[in-house]
User: What shape does this take?
Amino acid sequence: MSSQIIATHLLDWFRPQMRDLPWRHIQNPYTVWLSEIMLQQTQIETVLPYYNQFITKYPTVDLLAQATLDEVLKLWEGLGYYGRARNLHKTAQIVSTTYGGIFPTTPEQLMTLPGIGRYTASAIASIAFGFPSAVLDGNVMRVLARLDDLAEDIAVKATQAQLWERAQALLPEDAAGDYNQAIMELGQKVCRPIAPRCTDCPLQAHCLAFARNTQAIRPVKTKKPATPHYHVAAAMVWDDAGRVLIAQRPLDGLLGGLWEFPGGKQEAGESLSECLQRELLEELAIEVDVLELFTVVKHAFTHFKITLHAFTCRFRPGVHPPQKLGVQDYAWVQVEELARYSFGKADRVVIEELHNRRGMLL
Assistant: This one.
């Protein structure tokens, strides 16, 4: 079956019933880029309120470029994968200053911007500019693997190269943006990972996996290793003025630029209290008295899980204030001021518990 017929069937299915999404109302390069960055590894339903907040506060790339990183991180708070927010801010500044507020039009140019890889560059170029460049994400890989009944592991580079070629071969050059959105939406709504809705699929007649009844075992994926788990200690360090110490994480690491209750991962052979005292010396050059366990929070990141143990601690004033040894910044704040800062999920749970139990501390 020719690629033209497949594209025609897919577009005929997509255009009358495509999802009503806010970034499809005004498809300019800025809204396409913003939505594509937010949609990386995140469900549409989760993205929608964040997209609306961002486009309301920063309706143009120039306004986003003028914001501070703290403002961007605070608005992004809760969406996760915070490296996206940092790269979003960097790219906005580059587009505003280097390109005069006008986005580059080709995938090659777009890929020079922070946070834009091959898939995102192709999505922006095709949807915003009609550039004939195919996309390949998890949804598209699943559709193509079933369409061709692909028995090779899609995690292997050679297989992914094959899928990129196949995706490009199917792409209609005169409708690249609609086609890319159509095949992604087919993977989201119909060609689902579990229990695909084959009877509703516009490509059923062309699908080898359907013909051979192999949908349930396509695509082939390498089994993921067991997810590691770590115990982490965090310190709620109070001073005599009733303020709590918070620290800003280094910009180039996990949750970079977010604020936290300082601490770190427990090492072999040390207690949680010893872990806290070591981490606070290494990061801030301070000593504390560890008083009591305040709360425990379980949290999962993409590649590992943690159990966060938050302790109330008393600051031991020394000959100098805290130092920025392993942190970007630090601040002594009243509880009411915590809402001004952007925190990761686990620390926000601690803050919520702090508000719930206010008055029971120290």
User: Anything to note?
Assistant: The radius of gyration is 24 Å. Residues 229-356 form a domain with the Nucleoside Triphosphate Pyrophosphohydrolase fold (CATH 3.90.79.10). Strands lie at 229-238, 244-248, 259-260, 263-265, 287-300, 305-316, 329-333.
